[in-house]
Specification:
flat
C-alpha cells in the first residue's frame, strides 16, 4: 500500500505528525461544532446538539463500515491539550480548538493536497484593538449623505484578523508598438472684427499639428503587483487597501499564523496570472506612451508578450469587519500592516432627496430674483 503523506500541525512550540488519510474519528461530523459523531448517536457527545435522523436510522451495514465514512472535504486530528478530535477545513490553515481555545496551524503537504505552499508572509503590525478603534472612528465619521443613526444602530456581526492569500508575479514584457506622432508648429494669421462700429484687423497665433507614423519595440521588467487569491476579497476591494510594504516580506513559517485565521487560495495561479498580465499590459501601454517622441500621439497600438514569469504565493494581514444596518450587511477592511482602511456605508435616500430638492429650490429662487430685477 502506498505511503500516506503526513500533515504538520504546529501546537505552541511543538510539532506533531498527523496521518490525514486515516483519521481517528468514525461516522459523520456534528453540524453544530464539527466534532465526530457515531452514526447511531442521537446527540453529539461534545456539544449535545441533536443529530440528523437520517444518520440515526442508518442500516447496520453502514454502521459497520462507518469507520471509513468521513466527509471528503474534512480532515481531523487530536488536540494535544484537551484530547478532542478536531475537524479541520482544508481551506483554512489556522484556527483554535473549539473546546480549549488552543491555537493550531495546520500544514498540509503539497503532495497530499496538490496545493502550493505559501512562500512569503507579512506579519500583523496592528492589534485587534487598534483595528477596532479604526472601525469606531470610521463609522462615527458619518457624512451628511449617510444615515444619522448609523453609529448607534450598526451591529457588528464579525470582526477578525485573517491572513489572505495574494499572488505576486514578476515577468519581462516585450512589445511591438505603432502610433501616429504629432509635432506642433505655429502660424500667424490675420482676422477682422468690428469694434465700436469700425472694422479692425488683428493677428493671432494658431497651433497646427503635423502627424507622421512611427513604430518600434519596447521591453520592461515588471513586478510588485499583488493579485488577490481569495474570491471573498475581489481584486477591486483589495486595491482599496493597498499598498503593502513588500520589503517587509519574510519567508513563510507556520508560527506567523498562530492566533490568526488564515485562508487557502481559491483563485489559482493561472487565473491570477491572467489578471496580473492584464494590469502589466496597461502599465506597458502607459510606459510606451510616455516614451514616445513628439508633442502628442494618437492611435497607439501595443502588442505584448510576457516571458520569464515567476510567481510567489504570499499571506498578507487584513482585518475584516462585517456590520449590519437595516438587514443589509456591509464590510470594512483594515490593512493589518499599514493601517489603511476602506469600507462601504449605507446611503440615506431621504437626505439625498432633501439635498436635491434644496438645490432645485435655490435655483428657482435665483431665477425668480433675476426675472424680478430684469423687469424693473
Amino acid at each position: 500500500m502506498a505511503s500516506r503523506s503526513p500533515v504538520e500541525v504546529e501546537f505552541l512550540d511543538q510539532t506533531a505528525k498527523i496521518d490525514v488519510e486515516n483519521p481517528a474519528p468514525h461516522g459523520r461530523l456534528c453540524d453544530a461544532c464539527g466534532a465526530p459523531v457515531e452514526s447511531w448517536d442521537k446527540f453529539c457527545t461534545s456539544c449535545g446538539a441533536p443529530q440528523d435522523a437520517a444518520s440515526i436510522d442508518a442500516p447496520a451495514s453502514a454502521i459497520a463500515g462507518s469507520e471509513n465514512t468521513i466527509e471528503p472535504m474534512r480532515r481531523f486530528f487530536r488536540c494535544e491539550k484537551c484530547g478532542a478530535e478536531v475537524a479541520t477545513d482544508p481551506n483554512q490553515r489556522s484556527y483554535a480548538c473549539p473546546f480549549c481555545d488552543s491555537t493550531y496551524v495546520v500544514e498540509y503537504s503539497p503532495a497530499a493536497t496538490g496545493r502550493q505552499r505559501p512562500e512569503f508572509v507579512i506579519g500583523f503590525a496592528l492589534t485587534q484593538a487598534e483595528a477596532e478603534e479604526k472601525y469606531r472612528q470610521w463609522i462615527a465619521a458619518g457624512g451628511w449623505f449617510h444615515p444619522g443613526d448609523l453609529q448607534h444602530t450598526a451591529a457588528v456581526e464579525k470582526m477578525r484578523g485573517v491572513y489572505l492569500p495574494f499572488w505576486s508575479f514578476s515577468m519581462l514584457a516585450e512589445s511591438r508598438w505603432s502610433a501616429s506622432i504629432g509635432e506642433y508648429w505655429y502660424r500667424t494669421e490675420t482676422y477682422t472684427v468690428t469694434e465700436n462700429g469700425k472694422t479692425v484687423t488683428k493677428t493671432r497665433t494658431v497651433q497646427e499639428t503635423e502627424w507622421w507614423p512611427l513604430s518600434g519595440k519596447h521591453h520592461r521588467y515588471y513586478n510588485g503587483y499583488l493579485v488577490s487569491g481569495s474570491r471573498g476579497l475581489p481584486q477591486v476591494e483589495a486595491e482599496r487597501i493597498k499598498p503593502f510594504q513588500l520589503p517587509a516580506l519574510a519567508r513563510y513559517e507556520p508560527k506567523y499564523l498562530a492566533g490568526w485565521l488564515a485562508e487557502e487560495y481559491s483563485i489559482d495561479r493561472d487565473e491570477a496570472q491572467r489578471l496580473c498580465q492584464d494590469e502589466f499590459h496597461r502599465q506597458e501601454e502607459r510606459n510606451i506612451a510616455a516614451f514616445l517622441p513628439g508633442d502628442t500621439h494618437r492611435s497607439l497600438q501595443v502588442e505584448t508578450w510576457f516571458k520569464h514569469v515567476n510567481s510567489d504565493l504570499c499571506l498578507l494581514p487584513i482585518f475584516i469587519f462585517s456590520y449590519r444596518y437595516q438587514d443589509k450587511v456591509y464590510r470594512f477592511l483594515v490593512n493589518g500592516q499599514t493601517g489603511r482602511t476602506a469600507g462601504d456605508k449605507p446611503l440615506s435616500w431621504r437626505r439625498i432627496t432633501a439635498f436635491v430638492l434644496a438645490i432645485v429650490l435655490l435655483i428657482a429662487i435665483i431665477a425668480l430674483v433675476a426675472m424680478a430685477v430684469g423687469s424693473r
